[in-house]
Specification:
With about 90 residues, the protein is mostly helical. Helices cover about 45% and strands about 5% of the residues.
Length: about 90
Protein backbone atom coordinates (compact mmCIF):
# COMPACT_ATOMS: atom_id res chain seq x y z
CA UNK A 1 0.00 0.00 0.00
CA UNK A 2 1.39 3.41 -0.98
CA UNK A 3 1.69 6.10 1.68
CA UNK A 4 -0.73 8.98 1.40
CA UNK A 5 0.80 11.77 -0.67
CA UNK A 6 -0.51 15.21 0.30
CA UNK A 7 -2.02 17.36 -2.39
CA UNK A 8 -0.10 20.49 -3.36
CA UNK A 9 -2.49 22.62 -1.31
CA UNK A 10 -1.85 20.51 1.82
CA UNK A 11 1.95 20.80 1.75
CA UNK A 12 3.64 22.97 4.36
CA UNK A 13 5.65 25.62 2.51
CA UNK A 14 6.42 27.74 5.55
CA UNK A 15 10.05 27.88 6.69
CA UNK A 16 10.96 25.88 9.74
CA UNK A 17 12.17 27.59 12.90
CA UNK A 18 15.65 26.35 12.05
CA UNK A 19 15.48 28.03 8.61
CA UNK A 20 14.32 31.30 10.14
CA UNK A 21 17.18 31.21 12.65
CA UNK A 22 19.78 30.33 10.00
CA UNK A 23 18.74 32.98 7.48
CA UNK A 24 17.83 35.79 9.88
CA UNK A 25 21.42 36.99 10.19
CA UNK A 26 23.24 38.54 7.22
CA UNK A 27 26.23 36.81 5.69
CA UNK A 28 29.40 38.43 6.98
CA UNK A 29 32.79 38.95 5.41
CA UNK A 30 35.92 40.98 6.18
CA UNK A 31 37.21 44.23 4.71
CA UNK A 32 40.48 43.48 2.88
CA UNK A 33 41.92 46.82 3.97
CA UNK A 34 41.27 46.95 7.73
CA UNK A 35 39.83 43.52 8.56
CA UNK A 36 36.56 44.92 9.94
CA UNK A 37 33.66 42.47 9.81
CA UNK A 38 31.16 43.73 7.21
CA UNK A 39 27.93 42.53 5.65
CA UNK A 40 28.83 40.52 2.56
CA UNK A 41 26.81 42.75 0.21
CA UNK A 42 28.24 46.01 1.57
CA UNK A 43 29.88 48.36 -0.91
CA UNK A 44 31.79 50.50 1.61
CA UNK A 45 33.53 49.45 4.82
CA UNK A 46 31.93 51.22 7.81
CA UNK A 47 35.30 51.52 9.57
CA UNK A 48 37.85 52.61 6.94
CA UNK A 49 35.35 53.73 4.25
CA UNK A 50 37.18 51.89 1.48
CA UNK A 51 35.16 50.62 -1.45
CA UNK A 52 34.84 46.88 -1.06
CA UNK A 53 33.93 46.08 -4.65
CA UNK A 54 36.97 47.68 -6.26
CA UNK A 55 39.69 47.23 -3.66
CA UNK A 56 42.71 46.16 -5.65
CA UNK A 57 43.81 42.71 -4.60
CA UNK A 58 47.23 43.50 -6.02
CA UNK A 59 48.00 45.56 -2.93
CA UNK A 60 48.32 42.40 -0.84
CA UNK A 61 50.21 40.68 -3.62
CA UNK A 62 52.64 43.57 -3.98
CA UNK A 63 53.18 43.64 -0.21
CA UNK A 64 53.99 39.92 -0.23
CA UNK A 65 56.20 40.41 -3.27
CA UNK A 66 58.19 43.17 -1.57
CA UNK A 67 58.56 41.04 1.58
CA UNK A 68 59.78 38.16 -0.56
CA UNK A 69 62.29 40.51 -2.25
CA UNK A 70 63.60 41.70 1.13
CA UNK A 71 63.96 38.08 2.30
CA UNK A 72 65.91 37.14 -0.84
CA UNK A 73 68.16 40.19 -0.48
CA UNK A 74 68.89 39.43 3.18
CA UNK A 75 69.62 35.80 2.32
CA UNK A 76 72.12 36.84 -0.36
CA UNK A 77 73.81 39.30 2.01
CA UNK A 78 74.05 36.60 4.68
CA UNK A 79 75.57 34.10 2.25
CA UNK A 80 78.12 36.64 1.00
CA UNK A 81 79.02 37.66 4.56
CA UNK A 82 79.49 34.06 5.65
CA UNK A 83 81.54 33.33 2.50
CA UNK A 84 83.81 36.31 3.21
CA UNK A 85 84.19 35.31 6.84
CA UNK A 86 85.09 31.74 5.88
CA UNK A 87 87.66 33.02 3.34
CA UNK A 88 89.32 35.19 5.99
CA UNK A 89 89.35 32.43 8.61
CA UNK A 90 90.77 29.77 6.27
CA UNK A 91 93.79 31.84 5.14
Amino acid sequence: MMPHRPEDDDRDEDPTDEDVERFSYPALGRCPECGQQVIEDAEICPKCHSFLWDVPQTKKNSKMSSMRGIFILLTIVLILTLSGLMAVLLR
